[in-house]
User: Fold this.
Amino acid sequence: MQEQAIQVHQIVRVSYKSGQYLAEVLELKPPKATVKILAVQKHPDQGDLHHPMQGDVLMFHQRRALSYQEKIMVPLGAIQPYQGEVPEYRGSLLLAVEQELARLREMDGSWAERSIQELETLQREYAAQR
Assistant:
């Protein structure tokens, strides 16, 4: 990604710790940018990021999606320009969880089972939030 292609206040797609988000660029400080989260496109994977898709790890982490308007710094290489409508945050979050659950239910193994348990817990928490 060329640094010149990204501008302050631009809406972008951001990859961050196995999740994908739509965000607004707030500040550019190459080689990173500060962005504000607007919507969730892919919910983060569950478990140990250092041992992906392994269910028998010492610490199986529950990974929440980033919050609405949460600000994070990301490498410019993790940012892509985005064109299109930005969905409402809560709806995008619930949809991303549902899509991730559907993907996991097609899989076998302890990682998928544990991930489903964690995501179902998160799904209930997210649905209860107003």
